[in-house]
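Request: Could I get any protein with tokenized structure?
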Amino acid sequence: MTFSIEPQTWLKFLDEEYLATFIKEGGASVKFAVPLNDSSRSALIASLSERAANCGYAVAHVDAEQTRVQMIDQIFFAVAEQMPWNDLSLRVLARLASEAGFTPAASGDGRFITRLAEANRTEEGTIRLELRPAMERGIFKHRKLSKDFRVAMMHLSQAELSGGEDGLTKSEVITDWLTGRNKAISAVKPYSIFTSINRANARHLLESLLVWVRFAGMAGLLILLDTKRVSLARNPRDEAVFYSRAAVMDHYEVLRQFIDATDRMRGCLVVVIPAQEFLDDDPSGRGLGAYQALKFRVFDEVHDRALVNPMASLVRLADPDEST
């Protein structure tokens, strides 16, 4: 018999023990939630997204059908595509301005520097002159951000501060680099960025993003990894990504690295939602049994024979009449 927990019960524990407390206070965790009834997958993802957003988190949904989840740089690009970069920069600017003693700018669609100058009854030039050192200290010299990331954030913040066509162009170039839409280094060289985002540095950039999100005043980041597609054994020859067995092993290694990196991640909850086949213990298959390094980090060696631990790394989700 497979012991499962009801989705709403598990979500309640996730709310109380992780989203509302541990993650918001700077912790990080990786959870595996396996829906025994796949028809509940969409509702689970929607509920997780809504709960996290209500708690003040940024949310990114990464689907293995569209994103090659065996590569960390592709996961980063998918997450970056869903980040409100402009809003995050405005939040940081507002924080730095407040710390510098400025009266908060009124909300609106105009340029931030104009609204801030009006709120403080001073000239824009004065605002720019006094705010620049705060930006240098708070962004460009932020040592918890990787070098390329803090350079990019400095440019994004400058673009949001000044606005206009030049600011819009700068913002587009930087976000295209962050999201992988443009991988040509020549595009970002004028902004003192000389490295492409790849499998070697993407994890450092993701860790920097977590710091940036919290620096902007958000609770943290929820990453939803829908990995149902990974368990598909035969290529249906459709337009979605198909994973060879070697790619499946690479994907499991990426998940293993996420688990081992939680001590370096701040304010991040990763929820992996695989297919039921993920629970397959056969070493020759495509399930968890095929990759011991991940299995030993996820499965509980000691567990109750009748009760499910809602705090476990891996849970099986089903209503009482669905479990088997």
Summary: The radius of gyration is 22 Å. The chain has a mean pLDDT of 93. DSSP finds twelve helices and five strands in the chain. The first strand starts at residue 28 and ends at 35.
